[in-house]
Amino acid sequence: MPDIQPTPAKIDISLSQGVTIQWRDGHTSRYEIKYLRDECPCATCTDAHNTGEKPTSTKAQPTAGIALPIYKPAGHKLTGAEAVGRYALQFHFDDRHDSGIYTWTYLREICPCEACRKQPANM
Ligand SMILES: [Zn+2]
Ligand SMILES: [Zn+2]
Q1: How many angstroms does the Cα of residue 60 sit away from the middle of ligand 2?
Q2: Nearest ligand to the CA atom of 42
């Protein structure tokens, strides 16, 4: 009998590597930080998806002539994460974006694994 709402049994958050969620039904979802950032469900990002525009982000352009050791694109790391009630997670991305609330249902929906990509969200 399928759960109406997916519930995680175990959550593993690495600020630099990504987020792994083991669900009660035995399924495991693994999310890269960049993927979570791209799928951010907040109003700003959703609007941006709909219009095909990227939200205006302050791009750190390396000044010509100064060699920066590594150019790190923003949004590829977390600076923090916290639980929102008992139903969601909130991520703080390194581009200072943190308005997305990722509910369990949403996280399960966007599970990037092959099995989930092939199937409709409802099982
Ligand atoms: Zn967002
Ligand atoms: Zn999956």
Answers
A1: 34
A2: 1
Ligand nearest to the CA of 20: 2
**What is the pLDDT, as a whole number, of residue 60?**
54
Q: Where are the beta strands (DSSP E) in 1-75?
A: 8-14, 18-23, 28-31
Q: Residue 116: nearest ligand to its CA?
A: 2
Return the ligand number nearest the Cα of 31: 2
Q: What DSSP designation does 62 have?
A: P
Q: How far is the CA of 49 from the centre of ligand 1 (A)?
A: 10
* CATH code assigned at 103: 3.30.2020.30
**Which residues span the domain enclosing 85?**
8-54+75-117
Q: Is the residue at 37 inside a domain?
A: yes
pLDDT of residue 5: 84
Chain centroid, CA 23 distance in Å: 17
Structure tokens at 2: 């399928």
Q: Kindly report, residue by residue over 68-116, the tens digit of the pLDDT.
A: 555 556 768 999 999 999 999 999 999 999 999 999 999 999 999 999 9
pTM flag (> 0.85):
no
